[in-house]
Each structure stands twice: as C-alpha cells, then as structure tokens.
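Observation: inputs received (chain + nicotinamide-adenine-dinucleotide).
Thought: call the complex predictor directly.
Action: predict_structure
Action Input:
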Amino acid sequence: MKIKNICCIGAGYVGGPTMAVIAQKCPEINVTVVDINENRIAAWNDEDVNNIPIYEPGLSEIVAEARDRNLFFSTDVDEAIDKADMIFISVNTPTKTYGIGKGMAADLKFIELCARQIARVAKSDKIVVEKSTLPVRTAQALKNILENTGNGVNFQILSNPEFLAEGTAVDDLLNPDRVLIGGDIDSTEGKEAVSSLVEIYANWIPKERILTTNVWSSELSKLTANAFLAQRVSSINAMSELCEKTGADVNEVAKAVGMDSRIGSKFLKSSVGFGGSCFQKDILNLVYISKSLGLNEVADYWEQVILMNDHQKRRFAANIVKTLFNTVSGKKIGVLGWAFKKDTNDTRESAAIYVTDYLLNEQAEITVYDPKVKAEQVYADLDYLNSRPEEENRKRVKVVNSPYEAGDKAHAVAVLTEWDEFVELNWDDIYKNMLKPAFLFDGRRLLDRKEKEKIGFEFYAIGN
Ligand code: NAD
Ligand code: UGA
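Observation:
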C-alpha cells in the first residue's frame, strides 16, 4: 500500500524533526504533526522559522522548505487521524511518578490515550506505528484497545523506534546507522504494512540499512541500545574516579581501550554524568520489566549503570565543596552550561541540575550561563526537584547572558556542558575577575589543563 497521508501524534524532540525529514524526503506524502500543546504547535507554525520550539542544527532549514508544502502542524488531532493512512505515535513516555512501578516503570497513559483516540476516530484501515520508546510487548496492549472498537476498521501495528540523538538529530535522521521496523511478519497484512514503511524510508536510506524484525525484538532493541550506550558512559566514568586516584588520565585510557576494534572509540567520553530524557528512564524501565519477570540478577546488573551515574554527579559536586576548603556557604559559583549536552536546548535530567541542587544545599550562590537555555527553564528544573521553596531558587540562582558575568567575582567556575564556545572564551579575563584562588572545575574534559594552570587557575578535571 502506498502511503499518502501521515499523521504524527506528538510534536516534540522526536515527532518534530522525524516528520520534518520524512516530509522533506517524500514530497508526495502529506505529513501532519499534531499535539495537544497549543503553544508548541504555534511555535512550530511561527512565521520566523528560527522560533520553532526545538533547537537542532539544520532543522529550521528543513522546516522552512517543507512547511505548508506537505508538512503541517496542527492541534486538530481528530482530523489528522481521520485523514491518515499511517499514524506515528510519538508522545512522551516518562517514568511513572505514582502508583505501581513509581520511579521505575514507563508511564504509558499518553500512549493509551492516543490508542483510544485513534480507535474512536478511525473510519478506515490504518497502520499505527510506535515511534515512542516503549516497554517490550506494548504493541499487544495497543492491539487490544484498537481491535475492540467493533467498528470494522483493521489496524496493523508496527514498532519503529527512533535512534536519533539530540544535537545531531538532523544528521542522524538523514544518515542513520540503521532504521528498525518491527511488524507481524507472519501475516500477509503485517508484511504489507512493514513494506509500506520500508518504502517511505527507502526514499533516502539504502535498503540494506533498513532492518525488519518481529515486533517484540524491535521494541526490546530500543531499550537495549540505550542501556548499552549508557553502560559505556558509566563504565568510563567509573574508571575516571580510579584515574584520579592513580595518576592515570581517563582520556588516555579511553583512547587506548577504544582503539581495540572490538570495543570501539565512541561513547567513551568521561563526564560529570549522563543526562537527557531517555537513558535513565529507559534503563529504569528495563530494570522494572526484568524485576516484574522475576529476573532479579538482570535487573541488578542494569540498575548499577544508574547508581554509578548518580555517584558521578554527586562526587563532582562534593569535590567542589571539598576543594573550596570544605564550605561553599555564601560563595559564588559560576555554572557554565545547563543543557544535558551541547547543541541542544534540552535540559531534561541534565547533570547541571543535580550539581547545582547539591551546591544550593551547601548554601552556595549560583550564577548560570547557557547559550541556548532560558532562565525560566533553569528555575523550572530546580523547582521540579522540590528541594527548597521556589522563591529561594530565584534568590540564590542568577541566570545571566554572558559567561564572563557568570565568572565575575566567583570563587569557582564549573563547566557542565561541553559547548564549543567555552573552549574559545577569554579565560585570562575570566581569571582576572574571579576571587583568588580561582578554582576551575571541568566536568567535560573540555579545557586544556596546562593552559589554564599557566593562567593561574586551580584546575580540576574529571578523570585527570
Ligand atoms: P516530548 O515530550 O518532547 O514530546 C512529546 C509530545 O507529545 C509533547 O509535546 C506532548 O504535548 C505530546 N502529547 C502527549 N500526549 C498527547 C496526546 N494524547 N495527543 C497529542 N499530543 C500528545 O518527547 P520526545 O523527547 O519527543 O520523546 C517522545 C518519545 O520518543 C519518548 O518515548 C522518548 O523516549 C522517545 N525518544 C526520544 C528521543 C529524544 O532524543 N528526545 C530519541 C529517541 C526516542
Ligand atoms: C541518546 C542515544 O544516543 C540515542 O541513540 C537515543 O535515540 C536517545 O538517547 C533516546 O532514546 O532518547 P541523547 O540522549 O539525545 O541520545 O544524547 P547522547 O549523545 O546519547 O548523550 C546522552 C548523555 O550522555 C549526555 O548527557 C552526554 O553528554 C552523555 N555522554 C555521551 C557522555 O557523558 N559521554 C559520552 O561518551 C557520550
């Protein structure tokens, strides 16, 4: 079946960029991205394409090319479902904050609402595609909801997890290592559904990179990929602590180890801890699924990746306190970087939030600079932790528009996101305006130790 109309429910970090690229590469398909968040849709439709709600290198150009040609953003979810032959579900699947599985299981309420809405609205046969990251066997639940409407509509359910990383979303979508499509490959209808999605991607992706599997393998591969990636970061971060105690340098160790082609060099960059909306959520979900199936050893194995990450964030913050003569009370600390990695304005689960919270508990005064994150986001992130009254967060945390202001009269500066511009700063100027001794903490191994020590900084870097 040739797809003519696509609807994507969820205009977030995944739905927006993914659909923009499909629309760009398949001009004959109409793509409508819908969301219940009116502000988000208004921003996607903003006349000035630089105001779209997600910052990703190259994304605004693609949106400018396809928007209002065959790419549309709307809040009319029913209409888009009704028109579509294929519906992607790309809504958020956060960790549950209540009830059974609280703090671990994925909250599937948004997914279920989508399924019920599709079931209610659909009058013609549809292919429903799981784009969100979901626990293995979610497709079964979707099937149960969709197939019990009694309206005679046939649904095929596919799993097509997304592997893009933020900051490189457009590149990842244009040139992915692989695209994974899971479907009911034992039935003719299932096979047809799979091949109609394969045909869409084949417009720009070589067929040998489009992988088809059964639905459960596809769902589980997504959780597995994130668990493996995060595990590498926690592994190298564990080594960073050992390096600091022994005179080894974690960058040298990572290089030496990564040159073994069986290990590979990627995802071995030691840091103040991984952040982002997915690694922690997906591993917790994996731990929960394993526990629910009675696989306690499997659960414990993966949980350790999270425990190590929590330890890394905490020990970085604790080291600041220790180095500043065991107290940061009333001291000004400049935080450079709030996003969870460079080239994104996303701050979800960013290490900066936790390091700052720790330092605030030690009564520090914090000044934050990030080139892409707005002040209200910084406050929202801190308020969400509920560690102190909201007024206190506003009183003790200042968000500024220049890195130099963040360092002005500070006792210490901490680099928490690896923005390129931090390498190029005039560090002599920053040093001059700081209190002495001027402490510099590099949570990203971004800065050159020798250069900074020559300027006069007391320098600390992860794993060195
Ligand atoms: P997001 O929060 O940025 O976007 C989700 C959007 O869905 C929100 O705008 C929300 O308003 C909307 N929504 C929720 N329920 C809805 C409903 N019933 N009807 C219409 N709209 C609804 O989330 P995201 O980062 O895009 O992630 C979406 C999924 O993709 C998650 O499962 C995530 O794990 C997965 N994923 C994310 C990334 C990433 O880099 N962020 C990468 C791969 C996979
Ligand atoms: C990650 C995966 O890389 C994507 O494949 C996946 O689709 C996505 O999660 C998801 O499911 O949401 P993302 O979180 O956007 O993508 O970014 P990453 O580049 O993976 O970085 C995650 C965190 O790990 C960041 O805080 C980053 O700074 C940190 N990291 C990464 C390190 O500390 N060291 C590294 O070597 C790599």
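Thought: report the result.
Final Answer: The pocket of nicotinamide-adenine-dinucleotide (ligand 1) is lined by residues 9-15, 34-37, 40, 77, 90-93, 110, 113-114, 132-133, 162, 164, 166, 277-278 (CB under 6 Å). The longest helix spans residues 215-246.
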